[in-house]
Amino acid sequence: MNDTVNDFKVTDRQTFIKFLDLLRKDFLDNPENWENKTLPDFLEALSAYTKDVQGYYDNMKLDIKADKPDWSTFADIFKGAKIYE
Fold this sequence. Notes:
Blueprint: H1 13-29, H2 39-59, H3 71-83
Helix pairs in contact: 1-3, 2-3
InterPro entries: DUF7660 (IPR056077)
Protein name: DUF7660 domain-containing protein
Pfam families: DUF7660 (PF24693)
């Protein structure tokens, strides 16, 4: 696994599974890069970022509709929850 969680491309269910493995590894190897280190904090951030992810897409000028998610949208939400306050 040479991929990092930030540059890994999620395209389907299988790559989402690999992404989750990378996310876990990132947490174990780099906890200092995580704002939300407890499960309650992470789940709270996951909920909040799910509400706000469309704003991220709009600000980045990405033509992605969060109301019609695909596997990569779920990966984006998990990545956001890692640091979202």
